[in-house]
Amino acid sequence: MLDRLLFPEQPKSPYPASADGSLPESYKRVLDPVTTLGYVAARHPTLRVGTSVLNLPYYNPLVLARQLTTLDVLSGGRLAIGLGTGWSPDEYEALGVPMNKRGAIAEEALDVLEALWAGGDTVEFTGKHFTVPRSVNTLKPAQSPRPPIYFAAYTERTMKRVALRADGWMPAGIPAGGLGPMWAGIRQMAEAGGRDPAALALVVRANVTHLPESIPEEGRFPFVGSTEQLKADIAAHRELGADELLFDVQFSPDVTTVDDQVAKLEQLFELAAG
Predict the structure, then answer these.
(1) Angle at the Cα of 253 (from 150 to 235), degrees rounded to 5?
(2) Which one, of 137, 133, 190, 141, lies nearest residue 161 by Cα?
(3) Radius of gyration for the alpha carbons in the chain, expressed in angstroms and rounded
(4) pTM of whole model > 0.85?
(5) Alpha carbons 4 and 7: distance in angstroms, whole number
(6) What end-to-end distance do the CA atoms of the chain give, in Å?
(7) d(CA 137, CA 117)
C-alpha cells in the first residue's frame, strides 16, 4: 500500500518511478494506507499486509507507532512496514515539513519508533525534532520485538540506514544490472557494522507497465515492456536473490478498474511461477 497525499497539476518535481515522470491516473484517488490495510487484514485473515512505502517524515512518530501497533495487534502479527522519505516537494510544502531536513527527521523518527518498540515498560525520548516524556509504554506490537521494517533507499547514506537499522531493502525502478552492486554494498555495510548480511531481505517493488510489444532495451525501465521482457526481468531479479517482488500494475495502459488490477496480478503471478 502506497502513501500519496497530492496529485499536483503542475508538480515541482517529476515522479521518479515512471519512465516519463508522470503520475499514474489512479493516484488521483489514494486512500489512507494504514486504515486500508486494517480493512484488508480483517477481510482476509491469512494475508500479510504492508506498506510500500510510508513517507516517514510526514508523520509524528508517536502517532504513527500507535497506528502501526494497532494494525499489527489486530492482524495477529501480519504487518510488514516499508518506509521511505518521499520525493514530492509539493507534499512537503503542504505538510509544512522542510524537505531539505527529511533525512534527519526520518532518522530521529526511527529512533522514536525503536524506543517505543524496544519492549520496555516505560519509554522516554528527547531529540531535536521529537520529544516523548517519560511514560508507561502502551505500544507493544504482536510481533517481537517489532514488525519487520524495510527501507526504500538510493543514496549511500540511506543505504547505510538499511544496512544498520532495517530488516531489508525495498527499491524500485533500478535495473537489475545496477541493483546487484547496490545490494552487495548494503550487505557489506551490514557486515562491517556487525550485522549478519544474510538476515537482510531484498524486497523489490516492480512498477509494471505491461505493453503489447517489446520496446528497445536501451534506457528501458525494469518491468516496462512486453510479456517476454517482463519474464526476463523476473528471472533477472530471481537470479539476484530477491526475496520478494511486489507488483504494482497501475502503470499498465490496460488497467483501469480493480478487476483489471486483479487480472493483471494473476497474469504476473503466473509469469513469476513459470
Answers:
(1) 50
(2) 190
(3) 19
(4) yes
(5) 8
(6) 26
(7) 9
For residue 226, what is its C-alpha cell? Answer: 512486453
Convert 112-124 to b/e letters by CB count within 10 Å (16 or more is b).
Answer: bbbbbbeeeeebe
Instruction: Copy the grid coordinates of residue 182.
Output: 547496490
Kindly state the cell numbers that stand for 233: 526481468
Q: What single-letter amino acid sits at 261?
A: Q
| Amino acid sitting at position 232 | A
CA angle, 39 as apex, 166 and 268 as ends, to 5°? 65
Tens digits of residue pLDDT in 171-228: 999 999 999 999 999 999 999 999 999 999 999 999 999 999 999 999 899 999 999 9
